[in-house]
Amino acid sequence: MSTQANRKAVSLPKATITYRRDVTDDLWVIRLRPEVPFTFKPGQYCTSGVEGVERAYSIVSAPHEEELELFVELVPPPTGQLTPLLYELAEGAEVTMRPRAKGLFTFKEQWADHFMVSTVTGVCPFVSILRDYLHYGRSGHRFYVLEGASYDDELTYDGELREMESEHPELITFVPTVSRPREERNRGWTGESGRVNTIVQRCLERFGLEPSSTLVYACGHPGMIEDVKDQLSPKGWTVEEERFWKE
Fold this sequence. Notes:
Layout: H1 3-11, E1 14-22, E2 27-34, E3 45-50, E4 53-58, E5 68-73, H2 83-87, E6 94-97, E7 113-119, H3 124-135, E8 142-149, H4 158-167, E9 172-178, E10 192-193, H5 200-206, E11 214-220, H6 222-232, E12 238-243
Parallel strand pairs: 7-8, 7-11, 8-9, 9-10, 11-12
Antiparallel strand pairs: 1-2, 1-6, 2-5, 3-4, 3-6
């Protein structure tokens, strides 16, 4: 590591990993306790790092929660630079964290209907938005969360989202889908199948949504986002995007 990177790492505030849960071989959830006050809006991201290597991560937790929750996917080297370092860290380890959140991928309350499309870790800002919305007992909006993954065990927040849907059916609809339904790892899967972008138009029609009242959010793999935009933008839908590049 260069001297410049050392200075950069030393000068930044730290955050302690207080919790870690491994979901699959390449997906895990951590919670961080920042050493300095950290405020953010639901849907924003934080910039965290190890050994001077930094990346942006969408925040899963809502602002009222005491710790920051992140959902991370391992990208092996040489493409991945930070996630292999993060992967080695256990509870009690420290990372750097810039003191300001960033991002405009936030809840736009002027729209009545919010149609949220994600791939795996792309669900993070949607969980944050919904936790915040429910925490304050808000009403008057509808949320439709579509999440796609190759395998159902990658749908890390499906339990929480199903519970939200069960407790607030007037507010939330959750539609998970897997793209490899016939593989053994998905044995027993009875939900939607196919890549999430392939079920978007069918779900919009099923729920009776209209471009005039619906904001479409697309978060995750760039290819998914491009396809959703190509499908919907020419038909008058407004699409907000947040791309997750493989580092």
